[in-house]
Amino acid sequence: MPPGRRRSRGNGAIRLEAARNALQSLSSVLEENLISNPDISDSAARQILSIGKKHGTRVGPRISRMICRKCKKSMAPGRTSRIRLTSKKITTTCLRCGRITREGPDFGCELDE
User: Fold this and answer.
1) Among 4, 5, 13, 36, which is 20 to 30 Å from 89 by CA?
2) Is residue 41 part of a domain?
């Protein structure tokens, strides 16, 4: 860049809102194609993680449970992931890479009132 010129970081709020909209549409694509078309859901999972990393926005716990953070692919219960319920714990195992996640007493859920 020539001296005296600064890069503009304007439109940050617009980019953040666009990222949130993209995450919502990708989340619906992930849910719709989880069982029927795993290639599309894997691609949506990868893009959800990359958008979240770039823009600092995250999806809800329901969607984040469907994505393996190690292999960056979607986890369909019974097909590509194993879910075990023990007392006060949910244990999810990715059957592709073997990553194990354990969730505690509140399970990351919020009460809907």
Assistant:
1) 36
2) yes
In-domain check, residue 31: yes
Residues 6+ apart with CB under 8 A from 57: 16, 19, 20, 23, 51
- The residue segments making up the domain with residue 89 are 12-103
Burial of 19 (0-12, 13-18, 19+ CB in 10 A): middle
Contact 21, 29 (CB under 8 A): no
Question: 3-state class of 43 per DSSP?
Answer: helix
- Tokens matching residue 7: 């890069």
Integer Cα distance of 2 and 11 in angstroms: 23
